[in-house]
Amino acid sequence: MTSTEGRDDPRFYRGRLREPRSQRVSDPLYQVRLVSNRAKNYWLRTGLEHASGCLRVLDLGCGRGGDLFKYHHAGIAHYHGLDLDGEALHEAQSRYRQLRARYRRTFSARWTQGRMEDAVFLLRNEPHRFDLLSCQLALHYVSESLRHVLLSWDQLLAPGGALVVSLLRFPHDLDELCGPHFRLQRQGEDRLLCRLGPAGSREWQEPLISVHELRRALEGLGYRPLQSRSFLSLAEQEGLLPGVASHQLSAADRSLLRLYEGHVFLKSG
Ligand SMILES: C[S@@+](CC[C@H](N)C(=O)[O-])C[C@H]1O[C@@H](n2cnc3c(N)ncnc32)[C@H](O)[C@@H]1O
């Protein structure tokens, strides 16, 4: 059955891309997830290297805190996670407690439950702006005009700060992409039908956003594009994604990873 619950319902986002660790090795998309995880790490580090300031991070659509260890290793000072899913935030907080128990010196952290479209209002009492805004695999869920949302997020980013976005871009000239364990099918202009797992056991629809619109809106705000590449091209470049051997990727995984992209934009100082 196709899942079409509303985007404001947190259940819509759960269990899409992650499974319990015990199931991952037998997971047919394990290599894709591994590359995605390493690629996100690469983008966050690139953004942090170029952002000026004391490294305060705002993670929009942060989910269950899968990027917390990345931030710890990158040495940030403060982290704020925002997500509409209270259950995901609960898990993120528990991961953060584990992180603190393991490493005595790490960043301070806070969380806010709510829509990223309302971030400016929700964070109105924050005393300082952020040096890095991250939106990983979540920007396409924005339900208002992308330009309007980016304009509002600009108020949260300090001059010289970085915006790091990763997303799935489904080319206009492609109607369908299939592998042994996935099938992506375009549904009209801005929707994608996704089927994953053995015999397409999980099925749902994802909204698609226009990268052209993203770039145009940010350039209109005076942001400079620093890097923009697919996850596949990162995996192919030796040494960029530690632990990933691109020759081990199947042809189907390669075609899927070509659709995932990371973008880093810098705000003028
Ligand atoms: C695919 S997950 C990505 C999570 C995390 N950024 C990562 O890379 O692991 C998308 C997340 O966006 C959140 N989300 C979706 N729409 C949102 C909205 N309008 N405002 C805030 N969070 C939202 C979902 O609850 C979910 O946790």
Protein described:
The chain has one domain: Vaccinia Virus protein VP39 (Rossmann fold), CATH 3.40.50.150. 32% of the residues lie in helices and 27% in strands. The protein has nine helices and eleven strands. The protein is globular and about 50 Å long. The termini are far apart. The structure holds S-adenosylmethionine. The site of S-adenosylmethionine has 19 residues, from loops.
Short description:
The protein has a single domain (24-169, 208-266), classed as Vaccinia Virus protein VP39 (Rossmann fold, 3-Layer(aba) Sandwich), CATH 3.40.50. Helix content is 32%, strand content 27%. It has helices spanning 21-24, 30-50, 68-74, 86-102, 119-122, 146-154, 211-220, 231-236, 251-257, and strands at 56-60, 78-83, 108-113, 130-136, 157-168, 176-179, 182-187, 191-196, 202-207, 224-230, 260-266.
Query: Strand pairing plus helix content: what structural class?
Result: alpha/beta
Strand-residue fraction? Answer: 25-35%
Report the count of strand segments. 11
Task: Give the overall shape, derived from the CA principal axes.
Answer: globular
Biggest sheet, in brief?
Answer: 7 strands, mixed
Discrete helix count: 9
